[in-house]
Every structure is written in structure tokens, then in C-alpha cells.
Specification:
Protein name: Peroxiredoxin
Organism: Natronoflexus pectinivorans
CATH superfamily of the largest domain: Glutaredoxin
Main location: other
Distance between the termini: 100 Å
CATH class of the largest domain: Alpha Beta
CATH topology of the largest domain: Glutaredoxin
Strand order of the largest sheet: 10-9-13-12-11-14-15
GO molecular function: antioxidant activity; oxidoreductase activity
CATH architecture of the largest domain: 3-Layer(aba) Sandwich
Keywords: Cytochrome c-type biogenesis, Disulfide bond, Redox-active center
């Protein structure tokens, strides 16, 4: 019985020793003995100061605790190149030279071991550096053929690196390194890929700042996707009411029974202005009981809008959306942005431009 008590007590002591709610970061530089060492953290708002200390015979120590493991940076003096490491509540050691902070050796952290493996295994790192040198040499000598060849080879390597990055994140969506890398490559991923990764990260790291940031990044993309799905061909076009050039309210559903060409444009948009002569030709030929054009101006001021209308001699339905609320409903991200609606107000075509519009109208109305 006594043995069991001692065994239980010993086990408790061992477990307490293995689990920690604080970290100790011990470092030693082999090329300097004095100077200030700065500990900083990468946040969504930029680089944040955490702590500073002075070197004593080249050694330094930082102590504290973290709620979540995150990526930190260590700078020495005025050196602008830092050592990057994940800090978790454990004992971590750093050794190396201030002249090559990216190559310092970090021990005592499983996350940093994983992060190092990720960086070490990125394909073609040395080859890319050599290709950059060759590109700049070709550029300085005006060797266009070599430049194009290098750029083509580089594109293949970039795609291979992106696939490596993507696969690493998917295989490590249960840890902080994977979360950090997912956040950094989020713009290169499709919504569905991000959703899959985020689901796994939330199951393992719910509440971690990287996961929260990734979720915030994904939210508008999901909203955009839902808006685009609602605006698929065959769906009813969203109805809106805007003021015309005389200030009178105009509703899109006033034109049910006609084919409607909906055109988002602005006076400052050169491609939009270049389309206006084609729209005039289409309206002169087809406008009337069966066809209408509704041009939605995104100009901020009525002056610019009216001036462009007069210059281009536009004579169809002209309305103003200065706040962009209707454009947002239609998920407009660039202009010109066009939609052809059928007689029932349903979407038939999107992004008809130039002579293609004339050809479609000929089929519909002749």
C-alpha cells in the first residue's frame, strides 16, 4: 500500500515537471559579447515589442508565459534580420551567430523542429537563388530570350513549391505551425480548401489567434461565394431602386416584359467609355418595347456622371449608385460589369461585351 502511495506521488511529480505554464528562452551568440537583444511577436497588426535584455558574455535569457504558441522574432542590436521561432511554454535554447540569424540552432521545441523541417524541405531553394542571379545577368545584358526561358522554368518551380506548401499545411492542420502557414498562404487557396483546413484546425486549436484570423479572412470569401451562387445564370436578378439623372426613383422591376441589359460603369473607367458607342448602336437598333438598357453609374459625384452622359450622348435608362450598394449586391469587383436579363427578370448572360452583345440580341429579337 505504501509503495502505491510513493508511486502515485512520484508520478505526480514527474507529470508536474513535464508540464509547464511558462517558458525560458536561453540564448548564446558566438560572435558578440555585448548588445541589446529584442524579443518581438508577429501579430495580425504587425510586429509587436515583447521584451528586451542585455547580452552578458554573449548570453541572454527571456522568461515568461504564453497562452498560445506563436511565432516570435529575436533581433540583436541594429541587425534588421531576425531569428524566427515558435515560443511555447517549455525550455528553449538558441545558439549561433548574429551575422546569420536565419541559421541559428533552436532546441527544446517540437514546433520549431517541425518549422525547420518545413523550411529545409522546400524544393529547389538553392536552384531558385541561382536562377535569380542568372536572370539579373540576362536582364543587365538585354538577353530577352534567356530571361523568358528562366521565367518559364521559374513558373514550374513556383507551382511545385506551392503544392509542397499546400500539402504540408493539410498534413499539419492539427498544430500551430500548420495554422501559421495556412494563414500566410490563405490568399493562394480556394474557399473549399480553406474551409477543409479550417475545420481541422478548429477541431485541434479552437481559439488560437491564427485560427481566429483565418476564420475572419475566410468569412468575406464565403459571403462572396454565396452572392455569386445567388447570381448564377437562371436565377432571378436582384431588384433595386436608384435615382435617375433627374432624381426620380427607378426600379429594375419596371422593365419586366423586356430584355434588359444591366451595365455597371463609371465616367473614369476608360474601358466602360469605350463600350458606350457599341451600347448606343445596340439601343438604336433594338431599344423599345422589347429591349432596354439600364446603366448603373458608380461615380462618386453626379457632376462627373452627368458630364460623361452628355459627352457620350447616352439616351437610355441611367441611374446612380454612388455608395456602391447595388454593385455590392451584384458582387461587382471591376467594371465594366454587365448582365443580360430575360423578360421575367432572370439572368441570361454575364459579362457580354462588344459585338457579342449585338449578336445575342440579334438571335433574341430578330
Amino acid at each position: 500500500m505504501m509503495k502505491n502511495v510513493f508511486f502515485a506521488l512520484a508520478t505526480t511529480i514527474i507529470l508536474a515537471a513535464c508540464s509547464s505554464d511558462s517558458y525560458k528562452l536561453s540564448g548564446k551568440f558566438d560572435d558578440v559579447t555585448t548588445g541589446t537583444v529584442y524579443l518581438k511577436k508577429i501579430t495580425e497588426f504587425g510586429i509587436e515589442d515583447v521584451d528586451t535584455t542585455e547580452l552578458v558574455n554573449g548570453a541572454f535569457t527571456f522568461e515568461g508565459s504564453v497562452e498560445h504558441p506563436e511565432l516570435y522574432l529575436i533581433f540583436h542590436g541594429t541587425n534588421r534580420v531576425p531569428a524566427a521561432l515558435f515560443i511555447e511554454n517549455t525550455n528553449i535554447t538558441i545558439t549561433g551567430s548574429t551575422t546569420d540569424m536565419e541559421a541559428v540552432e533552436i532546441k527544446g521545441s517540437r514546433l520549431n523542429n517541425l518549422f525547420k523541417k518545413f523550411n529545409d524541405d522546400i524544393p529547389h531553394i538553392e536552384k531558385v537563388e541561382k536562377m535569380r542571379e542568372e536572370f539579373f545577368m540576362a536582364q543587365s545584358s538585354g538577353d530577352q530570350s534567356t530571361m523568358e526561358s528562366i521565367m518559364a522554368d521559374m513558373q514550374v518551380i513556383i507551382e511545385e513549391q506551392q503544392n509542397y506548401y499546400r500539402n504540408f499545411v493539410k498534413e499539419n492542420s492539427n498544430n500551430v505551425v500548420g495554422a501559421f502557414l495556412a494563414l500566410n498562404m490563405a490568399q493562394a487557396l480556394e474557399v473549399e480548401e480553406l474551409e477543409e483546413i479550417l475545420e481541422k484546425l478548429e477541431a485541434n486549436l479552437s481559439g488560437h489567434p491564427y485560427v481566429v484570423q483565418l476564420k475572419e479572412f475566410l468569412a468575406p470569401m464565403q459571403t462572396q461565394r454565396a452572392a455569386e451562387a445567388a447570381l448564377s445564370v437562371g436565377n432571378e436578378a436582384p431588384v433595386f431602386t436608384l435615382s435617375d439623372i433627374e432624381g426620380n426613383p427607378v426600379s429594375l422591376d419596371q422593365y419586366r416584359g423586356k430584355y434588359v441589359f444591366l451595365d455597371f460603369w463609371a465616367a473614369w473607367c476608360r474601358p466602360c467609355r469605350m463600350e458606350n458607342p457599341i451600347l448606343k448602336r445596340a439601343y438604336d437598333r433594338f431599344g423599345g418595347d422589347e429591349f432596354e438598357i439600364v446603366s448603373v453609374s458608380l461615380d462618386e459625384t453626379t457632376e462627373a456622371w452627368k458630364k460623361a452622359v452628355e459627352e457620350d450622348q447616352l439616351n437610355w435608362v441611367l441611374v446612380h449608385d454612388p455608395m456602391g450598394s447595388v454593385a455590392q449586391t451584384y458582387a461587382v469587383q471591376s467594371i465594366p460589369n454587365t448582365w443580360l436579363l430575360d423578360r421575367d427578370g432572370n439572368i441570361m448572360h454575364k459579362q457580354l461585351r462588344g459585338e457579342e452583345l449585338i449578336e445575342v440580341l440579334e438571335e433574341l429579337l430578330n
